[in-house]
Automatic annotation (TrEMBL):
Residues 29-148 form the Poly A polymerase head domain. One of its GO terms (biological process) is tRNA processing. It comes from Candidatus Kutchimonas denitrificans. PANTHER family: CCA TRNA NUCLEOTIDYLTRANSFERASE 1, MITOCHONDRIAL. Belongs to the tRNA nucleotidyltransferase/poly(A) polymerase family. Residues 269-411 form the CCA-adding enzyme C-terminal domain. InterPro entries: Bact_CCA-adding_enz_type3_sf (IPR050264), CCA-adding_enz_C (IPR032810), NT_sf (IPR043519), PolA_pol_head_dom (IPR002646), PolyA_RNA-bd (IPR032828). Pfam families: PolyA_pol, PolyA_pol_RNAbd, tRNA_NucTran2_2. GO terms for molecular function: metal ion binding; nucleotide binding; nucleotidyltransferase activity; tRNA binding. This is CCA tRNA nucleotidyltransferase. Keywords: Magnesium, Metal-binding, Nucleotide-binding, Nucleotidyltransferase, RNA-binding, Transferase, tRNA processing. Its cofactor is Mg(2+).
Amino acid sequence: MEERKSALDVPAAVVEITRRLEERGYATWAVGGAVRDALLGSSRTDWDLATAATPETVRKLFRPSYPIGLRFGTVGVRGRDGLVYEVTTFRRDIETDGRHAVVEYADTLDEDLARRDFTINAIAYHPLRHEIHDPFDGRSDLQRRLLRCVGDPARRFAEDYLRVLRGLRFAGRYGLEVETATWTALTTAVPGTSRLSGERVREELIKVLEAPGAPAALELYRRSGLLAELFPELDRLDNEEWGRRLRAIADLPRDPVRLRLALLFEPLGETAEETLSRLRFSNAEVRDVTELGAALREPLPPPDDVKAGRRWLRAVTPEWAEDALRLQAALAEGWDAEEDERRRLEAQAARVREILERGDPVTLSDLAIDGNDLKELGLEPGPDFGRILDACLDAVIEDPSLNRRPALLELAREMT
Ligand code: ATP
Ligand code: MG
């Protein structure tokens, strides 16, 4: 087996953990994403170790240590830099059903690498000896920019359909071409992904949206048939509209991810809520994304119409105004808007921000009166309250100088 020297930039704390295990005779290697990314020239902090030591041994050797996924043999070890590193006992799969795996501890690194999904994820690096152990030629695939399964692709996807999503994510993230046999097996496995839990799909989708290359990964979702399988409503967008969305997503920041989520799911309209809930997004996240989607459907006011500006802010709410402006700008970018259109958008945004800064009343809570005042007028609390306060807000939006208690009480009285 070929082993070549080449020093990667491993944190000193990881070297130290490795040394302690190796000194006791337990083979220990750095594996996974950090090795892959280091070989690509980008560094990250989450180095994972694979070791011959059992979790019990690891827990005894390192205090404090934390049971992160003891069922899977993973122990969290705090390094002297204060970070927690995952140390996982060599494993092999003994049973898989497309969604879960039953694993047992393995004796060798090679067995452990053989259960990993793609060759680029199956490269091990020895932090003390600076050796690379790469039985599946992951490095040459990295160089050739190729995504390739470890072992028989059809079998590997059927073992765990999440690998379909992972593969497309890695291909998008690193601009990889999917090797032919891997692509054939992947597209054939797409129907199996419907058996994945909403949580796992959500976690993958978030990782896609938070990473560089998100548009490329989403395009692969579409080309592979995964989009049609998981989000048929999005697959129905025509090529032009889909391309526009992808360019808009590319224009948006990766963080906060709600912006990209909102733009992606906005075409679902009313059904977005159902789809997001199926993916087990929290209620707060569902609300954020659907409200942003609704805000995005609210056309921006003409820049010279300050009343329309206040009406827009009322509909969108000041809370979502900045996000909505950002999304509108991204969509214009996606559409490849003409220069004068861009200028108009900027003017519209500037006007809306002016209104916000001036603090013009645009929400019920900005009104100089509230429900208590209506009670004092002798009105019975009920649906009428909302109607009256809404009407007051209508008036105040047309003319903010009306936003004084006497004027509004007068108005309220007239309405009863
Ligand atoms: P990133 O953290 O950037 O998403 P990663 O490669 O670190 O990428 P993880 O999900 O953190 O991915 O997993 C760490 C490693 O574990 C992977 O590199 C891969 O070797 C292995 N792995 C993870 N999930 C699977 C899976 N579903 N099937 C096979 N191997 C997997
Ligand atoms: Mg990782």
